[in-house]
């Protein structure tokens, strides 16, 4: 059986509201983390299309020159009045389910993501109707997949302890190494430092290196 091609759904919150648990986060850093995730995902073997679901009105313009010729097709879906991570992912699933491809949900907070590692994870996922990858703590979820025959049963349950919930729902747990960049999500400053040791994407690195904007006294 030939390996499936994939449509990746990437939910991304607006830059000025994202990553509230990350100390001293700026909108530029939050958006850079998402951009590095999307660019890396677009270059992963087997990925034919990315559907970014977002409430960020500027993200499509930022991504357009970065996900270019030779990469996966890029579509940006504005989520409108839809609020919350799981509802926005469901919106993406409904928009992509007629693509005829396998579907994967990749959270947009993997700034160290390497395309080859994501491609390997998707290859492993293709052996199961539905599969899931845990974050580096082993409790959350960074990757959720379904083959075309199982998309009707793809029900996102992101949030606290989501990995266990996805496994109970019937997703096969994929065993990736502790240093897999597919598992290197960033929610806290310690997570960011860990991702930095693995090797950050260029946009996140640049955002971290930028001097803080001067404050203006009243």
Can you walk through the features of this model?
It is a single chain. Helix 1 (about 25-40) links the parallel strand 1 and strand 2. With about 220 residues, this protein is of the alpha/beta class. It has a single domain (about 5-210), classed as Spore Coat Polysaccharide Biosynthesis Protein SpsA, Chain A, CATH 3.90.550. The protein is built from 7 helices and 7 strands. The model has no long low-confidence stretch (mean pLDDT about 90). About 45% of the residues are buried. It starts with 5 loop residues before the first strand and ends in a 9-residue tail after the last helix. The longest helix has 16 residues, at about 25-40. Helix 1 packs antiparallel against helix 7. It has a 7-stranded mixed beta sheet, sandwiched between helices.
Could you give the topology of this structure?
Layout: E1 6-12, H1 27-42, E2 47-54, H2 59-63, E3 73-78, H3 85-96, E4 102-106, H4 115-125, E5 130-134, E6 141-146, H5 162-168, E7 172-173, H6 189-198, H7 202-209
Parallel strand pairs: 1-2, 1-4, 2-3, 5-7
Antiparallel strand pairs: 4-6, 5-6
Helix pairs in contact: 1-7
Function: Guanylyltransferase that catalyzes the activation of phosphoenolpyruvate (PEP) as enolpyruvoyl-2-diphospho-5'-guanosine, via the condensation of PEP with GTP. It is involved in the biosynthesis of coenzyme F420, a hydride carrier cofactor.
Pathway: Cofactor biosynthesis; coenzyme F420 biosynthesis
Pfam families: CofC (PF01983)
**Structural class assignment:** alpha/beta
What is the terminal separation in angstroms?
Answer: 66 Å
Q: Mean pLDDT across all residues, rounded?
A: 91
- Classify the beta-strand content into a percent band: 15-25%
User: Can you identify the CATH superfamily?
Assistant: Spore Coat Polysaccharide Biosynthesis Protein SpsA, Chain A
Parts with pLDDT < 50 across at least 5 consecutive residues: none
Helix content: 25-40%
CATH class: Alpha Beta
> Which word captures the global form?
globular
CATH fold-type name? Spore Coat Polysaccharide Biosynthesis Protein SpsA, Chain A
Spatial order of the strands forming the largest sheet: 3-2-1-4-6-5-7
Q: What is the name of the CATH architecture?
A: Alpha-Beta Complex
Domains (count): 1
Largest sheet: 7 strands, mixed
Number of helices: 7
Instruction: Indicate the radius of gyration in whole angstroms.
Output: 16 Å
The total count of strands amounts to 7
* SSE arrangement, N to C: EHEHEHEHEEHEHH
């Amino acid at each position: 059986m030939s390996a499936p091609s994939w449509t990746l759904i990437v939910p991304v919150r607006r830059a000025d509201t994202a990553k509230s648990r990350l100390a001293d986060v700026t909108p530029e850093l939050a958006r850079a983390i998402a951009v590095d995730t999307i660019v890396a995902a677009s270059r992963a073997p087997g990925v034919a299309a990315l559907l970014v679901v977002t409430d960020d009105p500027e993200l499509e313009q930022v991504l357009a020159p970065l996900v270019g010729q030779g990469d996966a097709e890029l579509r940006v879906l504005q989520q409108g009045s839809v609020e919350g991570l799981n509802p926005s992912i469901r919106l993406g699933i409904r928009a992509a389910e007629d693509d005829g491809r396998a579907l994967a949900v990749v959270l947009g907070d993997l700034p160290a993501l390497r395309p080859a590692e994501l491609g390997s994870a998707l290859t492993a996922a293709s052996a199961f109707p539905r599969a899931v990858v845990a974050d580096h703590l082993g409790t959350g979820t960074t990757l959720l997949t379904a083959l075309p025959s199982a998309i009707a049963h793809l029900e996102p349950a992101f949030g606290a302890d989501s990995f266990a919930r996805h496994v109970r729902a019937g997703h096969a747990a994929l065993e990736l190494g502790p240093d897999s960049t597919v598992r290197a999500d960033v929610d806290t400053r310690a997570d960011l430092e860990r991702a930095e040791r693995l090797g950050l994407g260029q946009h996140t690195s640049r955002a971290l290196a930028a001097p803080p904007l001067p404050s203006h006294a009243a």
